[in-house]
Amino acid sequence: MNYQKYLGLLKEAVAYKSISTDAVYQPEVEKIVSFLENLYKTHGFTVTVARGYDNPIIIASYVVSPEAKTVLIYGHYDIQPADISDGWETDPYGLTEKEGRIYGRGAVDNKGQFMIHTATVFDLIEAGKLKYNVKFMIEGNEETGSPHITQFMHDYAETLKSDFALISDGEITAGIPTLETGFRGGFNSTTTVVTSTTDLHSGLFGGAVPMASLVLSEMLGKLFVNGKVTIPGFYDDVLEIAPEDIENNKRIPFTLEEYKNLSGAKELTSLDGYDFYTQVGLRPAVVITGMQSGYVGEGYRNSVPSKAVAKINFRLVKNQNPEELAKKFAEYMKQLAPSYADVTVEYSDPYDGIKLNTNSEYVEKARGILAEVYGTEPIFKYCGGGLPIVTLIDDIFKIPQVLLPLANEDCRMHAVGENYRVDLIEKGLRFSEAFLGE
Protein backbone atom coordinates (compact mmCIF):
# COMPACT_ATOMS: atom_id res chain seq x y z
CA MET A 1 0.00 0.00 0.00
CA ASN A 2 1.37 3.40 -0.96
CA TYR A 3 1.81 5.64 2.10
CA GLN A 4 1.11 8.85 0.18
CA LYS A 5 -2.15 7.43 -1.14
CA TYR A 6 -3.18 6.50 2.39
CA LEU A 7 -2.18 9.94 3.65
CA GLY A 8 -4.36 11.61 1.04
CA LEU A 9 -7.43 9.67 2.17
CA LEU A 10 -6.71 10.37 5.82
CA LYS A 11 -6.28 14.11 5.20
CA GLU A 12 -9.77 14.22 3.78
CA ALA A 13 -11.20 12.32 6.74
CA VAL A 14 -9.40 14.40 9.39
CA ALA A 15 -10.66 17.65 7.83
CA TYR A 16 -14.18 16.90 9.13
CA LYS A 17 -14.86 18.03 12.72
CA SER A 18 -16.96 14.95 13.41
CA ILE A 19 -17.24 15.55 17.16
CA SER A 20 -19.97 13.39 18.69
CA THR A 21 -19.87 14.95 22.16
CA ASP A 22 -21.35 18.29 20.99
CA ALA A 23 -24.54 18.56 18.90
CA VAL A 24 -23.31 21.77 17.29
CA TYR A 25 -21.05 19.62 15.09
CA GLN A 26 -23.89 17.55 13.64
CA PRO A 27 -23.43 19.10 10.16
CA GLU A 28 -19.80 17.93 10.21
CA VAL A 29 -20.94 14.44 11.17
CA GLU A 30 -23.24 14.37 8.16
CA LYS A 31 -20.40 15.56 5.92
CA ILE A 32 -18.06 12.75 6.92
CA VAL A 33 -20.86 10.21 6.56
CA SER A 34 -21.38 11.40 2.97
CA PHE A 35 -17.64 11.33 2.36
CA LEU A 36 -17.28 7.75 3.58
CA GLU A 37 -20.43 6.57 1.82
CA ASN A 38 -19.17 7.91 -1.50
CA LEU A 39 -15.64 6.66 -0.87
CA TYR A 40 -16.72 3.06 -0.39
CA LYS A 41 -19.23 3.19 -3.24
CA THR A 42 -16.55 4.50 -5.60
CA HIS A 43 -14.49 1.39 -4.85
CA GLY A 44 -17.27 -1.06 -5.60
CA PHE A 45 -18.81 -1.52 -2.17
CA THR A 46 -22.49 -1.87 -1.40
CA VAL A 47 -23.18 0.77 1.24
CA THR A 48 -25.95 1.11 3.82
CA VAL A 49 -26.20 4.16 6.07
CA ALA A 50 -28.10 3.03 9.14
CA ARG A 51 -30.02 5.81 10.89
CA GLY A 52 -32.04 5.91 14.07
CA TYR A 53 -29.17 4.91 16.37
CA ASP A 54 -27.93 8.43 17.18
CA ASN A 55 -25.22 9.34 14.62
CA PRO A 56 -25.39 7.34 11.36
CA ILE A 57 -23.56 4.03 11.10
CA ILE A 58 -21.96 3.03 7.80
CA ILE A 59 -22.01 -0.58 6.61
CA ALA A 60 -19.90 -1.12 3.48
CA SER A 61 -19.73 -4.62 1.96
CA TYR A 62 -17.58 -6.08 -0.79
CA VAL A 63 -17.88 -9.68 -2.01
CA VAL A 64 -14.86 -11.36 -3.56
CA SER A 65 -16.50 -14.77 -3.79
CA PRO A 66 -19.42 -16.58 -2.14
CA GLU A 67 -16.89 -19.22 -1.08
CA ALA A 68 -14.51 -16.78 0.61
CA LYS A 69 -14.50 -16.14 4.35
CA THR A 70 -15.88 -12.79 5.50
CA VAL A 71 -14.11 -10.31 7.78
CA LEU A 72 -15.97 -7.63 9.72
CA ILE A 73 -13.76 -4.55 10.19
CA TYR A 74 -14.88 -2.07 12.85
CA GLY A 75 -13.94 1.58 13.24
CA HIS A 76 -15.40 4.90 14.32
CA TYR A 77 -15.38 8.26 12.57
CA ASP A 78 -16.31 10.38 15.59
CA ILE A 79 -13.59 12.20 17.50
CA GLN A 80 -12.90 14.13 20.67
CA PRO A 81 -13.05 17.95 20.57
CA ALA A 82 -9.91 19.87 19.57
CA ASP A 83 -9.12 23.53 18.98
CA ILE A 84 -5.90 25.32 18.07
CA SER A 85 -6.38 27.48 21.16
CA ASP A 86 -5.98 24.39 23.38
CA GLY A 87 -2.25 24.48 22.65
CA TRP A 88 -1.93 22.63 19.35
CA GLU A 89 1.13 23.65 17.36
CA THR A 90 -0.70 22.80 14.12
CA ASP A 91 -4.30 22.91 12.92
CA PRO A 92 -5.89 19.78 14.46
CA TYR A 93 -8.10 19.42 11.37
CA GLY A 94 -5.34 20.02 8.83
CA LEU A 95 -3.29 16.82 8.96
CA THR A 96 0.37 17.85 9.28
CA GLU A 97 3.48 15.71 8.88
CA LYS A 98 6.69 16.67 10.68
CA GLU A 99 9.65 14.90 12.23
CA GLY A 100 8.39 11.43 11.40
CA ARG A 101 4.87 11.89 12.75
CA ILE A 102 1.52 13.05 11.44
CA TYR A 103 -0.52 15.35 13.68
CA GLY A 104 -4.27 15.87 13.77
CA ARG A 105 -7.41 15.02 15.71
CA GLY A 106 -8.42 11.51 14.70
CA ALA A 107 -4.98 10.72 13.25
CA VAL A 108 -4.92 7.75 15.64
CA ASP A 109 -8.37 7.59 17.26
CA ASN A 110 -9.78 6.23 15.06
CA LYS A 111 -9.72 7.61 11.53
CA GLY A 112 -6.05 6.86 11.03
CA GLN A 113 -6.39 3.23 12.06
CA PHE A 114 -9.55 2.15 10.25
CA MET A 115 -8.29 4.02 7.20
CA ILE A 116 -5.22 1.74 7.12
CA HIS A 117 -7.48 -1.24 6.46
CA THR A 118 -9.76 0.78 4.17
CA ALA A 119 -6.92 1.98 1.96
CA THR A 120 -5.36 -1.47 1.91
CA VAL A 121 -8.60 -3.15 0.86
CA PHE A 122 -9.00 -0.63 -1.96
CA ASP A 123 -5.51 -1.49 -3.24
CA LEU A 124 -6.08 -5.24 -2.93
CA ILE A 125 -9.36 -4.97 -4.88
CA GLU A 126 -7.58 -3.05 -7.64
CA ALA A 127 -4.79 -5.64 -7.76
CA GLY A 128 -7.22 -8.58 -7.66
CA LYS A 129 -5.56 -9.90 -4.49
CA LEU A 130 -8.22 -9.45 -1.80
CA LYS A 131 -8.51 -12.73 0.11
CA TYR A 132 -11.69 -12.14 2.11
CA ASN A 133 -15.15 -10.75 1.62
CA VAL A 134 -15.11 -7.52 3.61
CA LYS A 135 -17.71 -5.71 5.70
CA PHE A 136 -16.77 -2.36 7.18
CA MET A 137 -18.84 -1.10 10.10
CA ILE A 138 -17.93 2.50 10.90
CA GLU A 139 -19.91 4.12 13.71
CA GLY A 140 -20.17 7.70 14.95
CA ASN A 141 -20.74 7.46 18.71
CA GLU A 142 -17.81 5.56 20.14
CA GLU A 143 -16.62 8.65 22.00
CA THR A 144 -20.04 9.01 23.68
CA GLY A 145 -20.22 5.37 24.78
CA SER A 146 -22.14 3.99 21.77
CA PRO A 147 -25.47 4.23 23.63
CA HIS A 148 -27.56 2.60 20.87
CA ILE A 149 -25.03 0.19 19.41
CA THR A 150 -26.58 -2.85 21.10
CA GLN A 151 -29.93 -2.32 19.39
CA PHE A 152 -28.18 -1.66 16.10
CA MET A 153 -26.17 -4.88 16.33
CA HIS A 154 -29.31 -6.91 16.95
CA ASP A 155 -31.25 -5.16 14.18
CA TYR A 156 -28.45 -5.64 11.63
CA ALA A 157 -27.16 -9.00 12.83
CA GLU A 158 -27.87 -10.73 9.52
CA THR A 159 -26.33 -7.91 7.48
CA LEU A 160 -23.16 -7.92 9.61
CA LYS A 161 -22.81 -11.70 9.78
CA SER A 162 -19.14 -12.62 9.28
CA ASP A 163 -16.58 -15.33 10.00
CA PHE A 164 -14.28 -13.18 12.10
CA ALA A 165 -13.71 -9.55 13.12
CA LEU A 166 -10.69 -7.27 12.85
CA ILE A 167 -10.45 -4.16 15.04
CA SER A 168 -7.58 -1.67 15.22
CA ASP A 169 -8.26 0.91 17.92
CA GLY A 170 -5.50 1.57 20.42
CA GLU A 171 -1.75 1.53 20.99
CA ILE A 172 1.05 -0.99 20.76
CA THR A 173 3.01 -1.52 23.98
CA ALA A 174 6.62 -0.47 24.53
CA GLY A 175 7.20 -0.45 20.78
CA ILE A 176 6.23 -4.11 20.53
CA PRO A 177 3.33 -5.33 18.34
CA THR A 178 0.35 -6.11 20.51
CA LEU A 179 -2.67 -8.39 20.31
CA GLU A 180 -5.32 -7.42 22.83
CA THR A 181 -7.04 -10.27 24.64
CA GLY A 182 -9.76 -8.49 26.60
CA PHE A 183 -11.20 -5.25 27.89
CA ARG A 184 -12.67 -3.99 31.12
CA GLY A 185 -16.35 -3.08 31.17
CA GLY A 186 -17.97 -0.42 33.28
CA PHE A 187 -20.28 2.59 33.42
CA ASN A 188 -20.26 6.32 34.14
CA SER A 189 -22.00 7.95 37.08
CA THR A 190 -22.93 11.44 38.24
CA THR A 191 -23.43 12.04 41.95
CA THR A 192 -25.08 15.31 43.03
CA VAL A 193 -25.26 16.59 46.61
CA VAL A 194 -27.53 19.50 47.60
CA THR A 195 -27.37 21.03 51.07
CA SER A 196 -29.56 24.13 50.65
CA THR A 197 -31.80 25.80 48.10
CA THR A 198 -29.24 28.47 47.21
CA ASP A 199 -25.59 29.45 47.71
CA LEU A 200 -25.23 31.53 50.88
CA HIS A 201 -23.03 34.49 51.88
CA SER A 202 -19.97 33.04 53.60
CA GLY A 203 -19.81 35.93 56.06
CA LEU A 204 -23.43 35.79 57.10
CA PHE A 205 -23.79 32.00 57.09
CA GLY A 206 -20.28 30.51 57.03
CA GLY A 207 -19.69 28.02 59.84
CA ALA A 208 -23.39 27.66 60.58
CA VAL A 209 -24.58 25.89 57.42
CA PRO A 210 -23.26 22.78 55.66
CA MET A 211 -21.00 23.08 52.63
CA ALA A 212 -22.03 20.81 49.76
CA SER A 213 -18.41 20.81 48.60
CA LEU A 214 -17.20 19.39 51.91
CA VAL A 215 -20.06 16.91 52.23
CA LEU A 216 -19.38 15.42 48.81
CA SER A 217 -15.60 15.38 49.40
CA GLU A 218 -16.06 13.45 52.64
CA MET A 219 -18.40 10.98 50.93
CA LEU A 220 -15.93 10.39 48.12
CA GLY A 221 -13.12 9.95 50.60
CA LYS A 222 -15.02 7.09 52.20
CA LEU A 223 -15.20 5.26 48.86
CA PHE A 224 -11.65 4.05 49.42
CA VAL A 225 -9.67 2.57 52.28
CA ASN A 226 -5.98 1.99 51.56
CA GLY A 227 -6.80 2.21 47.88
CA LYS A 228 -9.51 -0.46 47.95
CA VAL A 229 -13.10 0.31 47.01
CA THR A 230 -15.51 0.10 49.95
CA ILE A 231 -18.79 -0.29 48.05
CA PRO A 232 -20.44 -3.38 49.59
CA GLY A 233 -20.13 -6.37 47.25
CA PHE A 234 -17.82 -4.55 44.83
CA TYR A 235 -15.28 -7.38 44.66
CA ASP A 236 -17.67 -10.30 45.11
CA ASP A 237 -17.68 -11.42 41.46
CA VAL A 238 -14.07 -10.61 40.62
CA LEU A 239 -12.45 -13.82 39.44
CA GLU A 240 -9.10 -14.92 40.76
CA ILE A 241 -6.44 -14.04 38.21
CA ALA A 242 -4.96 -17.10 36.52
CA PRO A 243 -1.22 -17.63 37.15
CA GLU A 244 -0.56 -17.83 33.41
CA ASP A 245 -2.14 -14.38 32.95
CA ILE A 246 0.08 -12.91 35.64
CA GLU A 247 3.15 -14.51 34.07
CA ASN A 248 2.14 -13.21 30.64
CA ASN A 249 1.74 -9.67 32.01
CA LYS A 250 5.10 -9.79 33.75
CA ARG A 251 6.72 -10.51 30.39
CA ILE A 252 5.41 -7.24 28.95
CA PRO A 253 8.29 -4.73 29.10
CA PHE A 254 7.73 -2.10 31.77
CA THR A 255 9.98 0.33 33.59
CA LEU A 256 8.87 2.77 36.24
CA GLU A 257 10.96 5.50 34.62
CA GLU A 258 9.25 5.08 31.26
CA TYR A 259 5.88 4.99 33.01
CA LYS A 260 6.67 8.28 34.72
CA ASN A 261 7.76 9.86 31.44
CA LEU A 262 4.65 8.66 29.65
CA SER A 263 2.09 9.51 32.35
CA GLY A 264 3.63 12.43 34.18
CA ALA A 265 2.76 10.66 37.44
CA LYS A 266 5.39 10.26 40.16
CA GLU A 267 4.40 6.83 41.44
CA LEU A 268 2.30 3.72 40.86
CA THR A 269 -0.65 2.96 43.12
CA SER A 270 -1.23 -0.66 42.13
CA LEU A 271 -2.66 -2.82 44.91
CA ASP A 272 -1.63 -6.15 46.41
CA GLY A 273 1.66 -6.27 44.57
CA TYR A 274 0.13 -6.55 41.10
CA ASP A 275 2.21 -5.43 38.16
CA PHE A 276 0.95 -2.46 36.13
CA TYR A 277 -0.63 -4.47 33.30
CA THR A 278 -2.42 -6.85 35.64
CA GLN A 279 -3.75 -3.93 37.68
CA VAL A 280 -5.19 -2.02 34.71
CA GLY A 281 -6.19 -5.03 32.63
CA LEU A 282 -7.61 -7.56 35.08
CA ARG A 283 -8.52 -5.64 38.23
CA PRO A 284 -11.51 -3.27 38.64
CA ALA A 285 -11.18 0.41 39.45
CA VAL A 286 -13.29 3.39 40.47
CA VAL A 287 -12.00 6.72 39.18
CA ILE A 288 -13.25 10.16 40.23
CA THR A 289 -12.90 11.94 36.91
CA GLY A 290 -14.33 15.35 37.80
CA MET A 291 -15.71 17.49 40.62
CA GLN A 292 -17.57 20.79 40.58
CA SER A 293 -18.85 23.00 43.38
CA GLY A 294 -19.06 26.70 44.07
CA TYR A 295 -17.07 29.36 42.24
CA VAL A 296 -13.65 28.71 40.69
CA GLY A 297 -13.39 31.65 38.27
CA GLU A 298 -11.11 34.68 38.51
CA GLY A 299 -11.11 36.38 41.89
CA TYR A 300 -13.42 35.23 44.67
CA ARG A 301 -17.14 34.93 45.21
CA ASN A 302 -17.35 34.22 48.90
CA SER A 303 -20.37 31.94 49.09
CA VAL A 304 -21.13 28.65 50.77
CA PRO A 305 -21.81 26.16 47.93
CA SER A 306 -25.27 24.65 48.03
CA LYS A 307 -24.52 22.02 45.40
CA ALA A 308 -21.63 19.72 44.51
CA VAL A 309 -21.29 17.28 41.62
CA ALA A 310 -18.86 14.43 40.99
CA LYS A 311 -18.33 12.47 37.79
CA ILE A 312 -17.20 8.93 38.49
CA ASN A 313 -15.99 6.30 36.03
CA PHE A 314 -16.21 2.59 36.87
CA ARG A 315 -13.88 0.11 35.18
CA LEU A 316 -15.09 -3.45 35.79
CA VAL A 317 -13.74 -6.85 34.87
CA LYS A 318 -15.46 -9.87 33.40
CA ASN A 319 -18.18 -11.37 35.65
CA GLN A 320 -18.87 -8.08 37.43
CA ASN A 321 -22.39 -6.90 36.62
CA PRO A 322 -22.37 -3.15 35.83
CA GLU A 323 -26.13 -2.73 36.33
CA GLU A 324 -26.05 -4.33 39.78
CA LEU A 325 -22.96 -2.41 40.86
CA ALA A 326 -24.47 0.87 39.68
CA LYS A 327 -27.44 0.25 41.99
CA LYS A 328 -25.17 -0.76 44.89
CA PHE A 329 -23.12 2.39 44.38
CA ALA A 330 -26.23 4.59 44.43
CA GLU A 331 -27.45 2.96 47.65
CA TYR A 332 -24.02 3.31 49.25
CA MET A 333 -23.66 7.00 48.43
CA LYS A 334 -27.03 7.71 50.00
CA GLN A 335 -25.95 5.81 53.11
CA LEU A 336 -22.77 7.87 53.33
CA ALA A 337 -24.62 11.18 53.06
CA PRO A 338 -25.63 13.07 56.23
CA SER A 339 -29.35 13.46 56.87
CA TYR A 340 -29.34 17.14 55.88
CA ALA A 341 -28.02 16.46 52.36
CA ASP A 342 -30.10 15.38 49.38
CA VAL A 343 -28.24 12.97 47.12
CA THR A 344 -29.05 11.85 43.59
CA VAL A 345 -27.01 9.31 41.67
CA GLU A 346 -27.37 8.77 37.93
CA TYR A 347 -25.52 6.29 35.74
CA SER A 348 -25.22 5.59 32.03
CA ASP A 349 -23.56 3.43 29.38
CA PRO A 350 -23.16 0.15 31.31
CA TYR A 351 -21.30 -2.60 29.46
CA ASP A 352 -19.65 -5.87 30.40
CA GLY A 353 -15.96 -6.68 30.49
CA ILE A 354 -14.62 -9.46 28.31
CA LYS A 355 -11.80 -12.00 28.04
CA LEU A 356 -11.39 -13.39 24.54
CA ASN A 357 -10.42 -16.84 23.37
CA THR A 358 -7.27 -16.25 21.33
CA ASN A 359 -6.99 -19.82 20.07
CA SER A 360 -8.13 -19.13 16.51
CA GLU A 361 -6.55 -19.44 13.08
CA TYR A 362 -6.99 -15.71 12.54
CA VAL A 363 -5.16 -14.68 15.72
CA GLU A 364 -2.38 -17.14 14.90
CA LYS A 365 -2.13 -15.75 11.37
CA ALA A 366 -1.95 -12.21 12.75
CA ARG A 367 0.72 -13.23 15.24
CA GLY A 368 2.94 -14.66 12.52
CA ILE A 369 2.59 -11.65 10.21
CA LEU A 370 3.22 -9.19 13.06
CA ALA A 371 6.43 -11.02 13.97
CA GLU A 372 7.60 -10.78 10.37
CA VAL A 373 6.64 -7.12 9.84
CA TYR A 374 7.94 -5.81 13.18
CA GLY A 375 10.87 -8.17 13.53
CA THR A 376 9.78 -9.29 16.99
CA GLU A 377 7.18 -11.57 18.50
CA PRO A 378 3.94 -9.78 19.52
CA ILE A 379 2.74 -9.68 23.09
CA PHE A 380 -0.76 -10.52 24.34
CA LYS A 381 -2.30 -7.84 26.53
CA TYR A 382 -5.45 -7.26 28.54
CA CYS A 383 -6.52 -3.66 27.95
CA GLY A 384 -7.76 -1.52 30.82
CA GLY A 385 -9.95 0.57 28.54
CA GLY A 386 -13.36 -0.39 27.23
CA LEU A 387 -14.61 -1.16 23.76
CA PRO A 388 -18.27 -2.26 24.00
CA ILE A 389 -18.34 -3.45 20.39
CA VAL A 390 -15.96 -6.29 21.29
CA THR A 391 -18.36 -7.62 23.92
CA LEU A 392 -21.31 -7.29 21.53
CA ILE A 393 -19.55 -9.13 18.71
CA ASP A 394 -18.70 -11.93 21.13
CA ASP A 395 -22.22 -12.11 22.59
CA ILE A 396 -24.21 -11.79 19.35
CA PHE A 397 -22.01 -13.28 16.63
CA LYS A 398 -19.77 -15.57 18.70
CA ILE A 399 -16.96 -15.27 16.14
CA PRO A 400 -13.18 -14.98 16.61
CA GLN A 401 -11.81 -11.46 16.91
CA VAL A 402 -8.39 -10.06 16.08
CA LEU A 403 -7.87 -6.99 18.25
CA LEU A 404 -4.85 -5.29 16.78
CA PRO A 405 -3.88 -1.76 17.87
CA LEU A 406 -1.49 -0.10 15.44
CA ALA A 407 -0.62 3.28 17.03
CA ASN A 408 2.38 4.45 19.05
CA GLU A 409 2.11 4.48 22.82
CA ASP A 410 2.83 8.22 22.98
CA CYS A 411 0.16 9.10 20.40
CA ARG A 412 -1.66 11.48 22.80
CA MET A 413 -5.12 10.38 21.73
CA HIS A 414 -7.83 12.59 23.27
CA ALA A 415 -5.12 15.15 24.07
CA VAL A 416 -3.40 18.12 22.46
CA GLY A 417 -0.99 16.99 19.75
CA GLU A 418 -2.57 13.65 18.82
CA ASN A 419 -0.04 12.01 16.52
CA TYR A 420 0.79 8.84 14.60
CA ARG A 421 4.36 7.75 13.89
CA VAL A 422 4.99 7.34 10.16
CA ASP A 423 7.12 4.22 10.62
CA LEU A 424 4.24 2.53 12.47
CA ILE A 425 1.78 3.59 9.78
CA GLU A 426 3.99 1.94 7.19
CA LYS A 427 4.19 -1.24 9.29
CA GLY A 428 0.43 -1.16 9.76
CA LEU A 429 -0.06 -0.93 6.01
CA ARG A 430 2.34 -3.83 5.44
CA PHE A 431 0.54 -5.94 8.04
CA SER A 432 -2.89 -5.15 6.62
CA GLU A 433 -1.81 -6.03 3.08
CA ALA A 434 -0.27 -9.34 4.18
CA PHE A 435 -3.21 -10.24 6.42
CA LEU A 436 -6.06 -9.35 4.07
CA GLY A 437 -4.39 -10.21 0.76
CA GLU A 438 -3.80 -13.40 -1.14
Can you give a write-up of this model?
By secondary structure, the chain is α+β, with helices and mostly antiparallel strands. The protein is built from 14 helices and 20 strands. The strands form six sheets. The protein has a six-stranded mixed beta sheet, with helices on both faces. A four-stranded antiparallel beta sheet has the order 13-15-9-16, with helices on one face. Helix 1 (3-14) packs across helix 3 (111-127) and helix 4 packs parallel to helix 13. The chain is globular, with a radius of gyration of 23 Å.
CATH topology of the largest domain: Aminopeptidase
Report the uncertain regions.
Answer: none
**Number of DSSP E strands:** 20
Q: What general form does the structure show?
A: globular
CATH class of the largest domain: Alpha Beta
CATH superfamily descriptor of the largest domain: Zn peptidases
Percent of residues in helical segments?
Answer: 25-40%
Radius of gyration: 23 Å
Strand content: 15-25%
Overall mean confidence score, pLDDT: 95
Structural class: alpha+beta
How many domains? The number is 2
- CATH architecture call of the largest domain: 3-Layer(aba) Sandwich
Task: Report the sheet with the most strands, covering strand number, pairing sense and barrel closure.
Answer: 6 strands, mixed
**CA(first)-CA(last) distance:** 14 Å
Could you give the order of strands across the largest sheet? 1-2-6-3-7-19
Quaternary structure state of the chains depicted: single chain
